[in-house]
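[Discussion] Sanity-checking designs against the backbone

I'm trying to build intuition for which residues belong where. Below is a structure token string of 191 positions. I'd appreciate it if someone posts a full sequence so I can compare it with mine line by line.
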């Protein structure tokens, strides 16, 4: 399959170069970047609007290209995680987010658009999912988020949920209050 994809991409590149400039659209590299951006934005919009039909359609768009780079593999895994969550398959979603996180770690800084943001979003998703499932790993993922400016509040809420699932209401309430306080302070700074 990888050799077929490479042959198809070489053929597409040859056809692109053979087409007069005035008749060209996108080269395959630009088209794949555009497709990736479409999938990433569609996931965000579909999650917010709870459009499971759109979420389920996205992984198949990236699947033919997922082996071209770690960034595409990560984005494909991310779309698989979103689909799994829409189908209430939490453990599958966690596995996919973990694989996405590991793929995004491999992408050199600046090599692909928004991979650091997607990596952090995968970490946040794992933290919240682990917390909701009562997994002890939630606190380690929250620690990773704590080091990133702008994600400290998410880290605190993940800790609160983790402690609540462990039955520790006192620590859960503490982290909820800390998150609310931090959120209020950070919103004052932005005004």
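Best answer:
Here's mine. Compare freely.
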């Amino acid at each position: 399959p990888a050799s077929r994809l490479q042959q198809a991409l070489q053929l597409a590149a040859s056809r692109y170069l053979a087409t007069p400039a005035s008749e060209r659209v996108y080269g395959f590299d630009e088209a794949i970047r555009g497709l990736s951006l479409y999938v990433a934005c569609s996931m965000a919009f579909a999650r917010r609007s709870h459009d499971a039909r759109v979420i389920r359609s996205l992984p198949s768009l990236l699947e033919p290209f997922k082996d071209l780079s770690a960034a595409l593999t990560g984005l494909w895994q991310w779309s698989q995680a979103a689909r799994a969550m829409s189908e209430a398959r939490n453990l599958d979603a966690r596995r996919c987010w973990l694989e996405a996180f590991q793929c995004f770690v491999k992408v050199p800084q600046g090599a692909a658009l928004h991979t650091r943001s997607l990596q952090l979003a995968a970490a946040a998703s794992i933290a919240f999912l682990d917390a909701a499932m009562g997994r002890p790993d939630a606190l380690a993922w929250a620690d990773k988020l704590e080091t990133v400016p702008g994600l400290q509040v998410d880290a605190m809420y993940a800790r609160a949920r983790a402690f609540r699932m462990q039955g520790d209401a006192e620590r859960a309430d503490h982290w909820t209050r800390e998150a609310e306080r931090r959120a209020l302070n950070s919103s004052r700074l932005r005004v």
